[in-house]
What we know:
about 240 residues; two-stranded antiparallel sheet; about 5% strand; 8 helices; mainly alpha; elongated
Amino acid sequence: MTDDVPGEPVPGTGSPGTGVLADGAPLPVGSLLRRIRRTADLSQRELAGALGVAASTVAQVETGARDLPAGVLARAATLAGLRLGLLDASGREVPGMTPDAVRDGRGRLFPAHLDVRHGDEGWWHGEERYSRTPPWYTFDRGRRLRDRFRAATGTPADHQLPRPGDSLDDRARARRRAAVARQRERERERRVLRGTEQRSLGLPVLTCSCPAACDELLFGDAALSAEGRAVPHVVDCRCRCDIA
Length: 244
């Protein structure tokens, strides 16, 4: 029996380099191992010695009598200047999932088949969740929740990477800032409309020169004192208007 010639079709397979049989099935591991030996110019004994396995193991793999762990096959491929990869139906290489994705409180990666999101986005814990501190990140416990989440947000290609501002406190502050900004914009629009109406009626136009800290009192989530509720302005506010 002779080895294959690199670049030529292997009998019974598809086109050269496709790594699939004519019916679309992947090549047997033995055929791949023979290709590796052919490319690296190694005998079965030489390859076995380089991999630290018995020569009989290589022979049995090539005849289809046994399988070979993917890690050993990957090490064999590097000897020939090759590497293993995942290909989709069109032959495009698909990368593995990133090892740098967010992790749980014990440093473990989340289940690959489920989707990860921030702990303040629909935490799935039981009724006791109200008495427990939400985690920074959580995941959909079942496929029904996952499918609902994907329908609303799209299917992510990978689990998310940790980023600055991911803590629940940072996210809460960001939501408060966004809410204050939206409220300020709504108030600005109201003031513009009010001024337009007053000018059309020949009335004096009242304006507000309150600092941004007054808006924080009005629209923030901190509890106000009795004085703050009566006069929602900071001490150094010179405007002290009641139109905001």
